Amino acid sequence: MLVAGVDTSTQSCKVLVCRADDGTVVRSGQAPHPDGTSCDPAAWWDAFQLAAVRAGGLADVAAISVGGQQHGMVCLDADGAVIRDALLWNDTRSARAARELTDELGAEAWANAVGSVPVASYTVTKLRWLADNEPDNAARIAAICLPHDWLTWKMAGAKSLEGLTTDRSDASGTGYFDAVAGEYRRDLLAHALRIDEADAERIILPRVLGPSDAGGSADGVGAPEALLGPGCGDNAGAALGLGVGPGETWLSLGTSGVVGAVSDQAWNDATGTVSGFADATGRYLPLQVTLNGAPIVDHVRRLLDVDYSRFAELALEAEPGAGGLVLLPYFGGERTPNLPDATASLHGMTSTNTTPANLARAAVEALLCLLGVCVDRAAGHGEITRVLLVGGGAKSEATRRIAPSVLGRPVDVPPDGEYVARGAARQAAWALEGGAEPPGWPLGDMRRYEAEHAPSILGRYREVFASQSW
């Protein structure tokens, strides 16, 4: 029996067709999304259809689930038509709205209500921007949904607005859903849109499905016998695809850095450092995101004018601590910690330690220290028993071998894979078979890296950070 997982991300749509019993990938397809920070959702539908064709079609699958980019704002009118281009998570025009919403109610009130403090990514801030800048469009809103909700609705045939569905993980990133109580906060929605709460009650929000609930059938894709799973946010999909459980965390080294953990406890961080999201299994997904990720290494690699292989060799030639060099890697400002105007700086240079090898090592250690602070923060809620390293930056042998010495924990590197789409496919299999837990899909050969812990690396990084006048 086959199931399909869809990853409708910022850049593209990926479709994986997998065996329901063990997750073996049978075939796959991919199609691009338009560039930019706003998008007509019709482009997602076109990309999905093309990716499905390239994956050999979906006529033989028994269930489909969608993992999607979080936080986007899709507004529909009473006829189900899209009112304006969707604003994506990376659209920052609502940064001022985020600050205003935080100031109006207070960071602690937001954290207690929905687990997170508003930032420009969240749907609630985009709705405030819409109310203030496009009031005519705001007045037309009959329903609000997220990218994965909209695509699932289209797969079901888009019969009525009442057919919109979502899940806890994606809903928890809107800024108006309480994942602990399992209910929307219409008062916060009304506050964002500057309308009465009674008017907010008339807006249709997607029905929140349980982790293994079926949300209908895939009538809209020519597979009426196929169940539609609840879908999930992309990070929750990645966690499910990787098989991350309580006490485990993963570091994703892409353009940005992501540190995610699965927890039995809800998080509500009033500092705004940790986003208290839900996961795709009924648990919680505290998430920390850094603006700077794998490009930290690229910046220094280009400065040294070497390829990736030689850069890794240089970094591994140097001793732990890079001879005293410490790089604060805020090349594009930073979100965690919240330093939007910060710049990168190199500290501890002398005439003897400023060598290519130490510069390379300092770059790798800077990336790992930036995320290591996040890992230590996650460990404050319970012991971290396992760290997984994924993403493009995890392909570097230097990063893999240096990581355990900085993080103080063994590091596991899974095989390359499309883990958001794999998580969505695993969820589809779960919706198909039911049960209290998702089916056990083996992850494949895992490489474990271990090294002697060198706490002085992260300690020195913290010292240099504290010495700055931010």
Lay out the secondary structure.
Blueprint: E1 2-8, E2 12-19, E3 25-32, E4 38-39, H1 42-54, E5 61-68, E6 74-76, E7 86-87, H2 95-105, H3 107-114, H4 123-133, H5 135-139, E8 143-145, H6 147-155, E9 165-167, H7 168-171, E10 177-178, E11 183-184, H8 186-193, H9 197-201, E12 207-209, E13 217-218, E14 223-228, E15 232-233, H10 234-242, E16 248-253, E17 257-261, E18 275-278, E19 284-290, H11 295-304, H12 308-317, E20 326-328, E21 345-347, H13 356-379, E22 386-390, H14 397-407, E23 411-413, H15 419-433, E24 447-449, H16 455-466
Parallel strand pairs: 1-5, 5-14, 5-15, 9-12, 16-22, 22-23
Antiparallel strand pairs: 1-2, 2-3, 4-7, 6-8, 10-11, 13-14, 16-17, 17-19, 18-19, 20-21, 23-24
Helix pairs in contact: 2-4, 4-8, 10-15, 11-13, 12-13, 12-14, 13-14
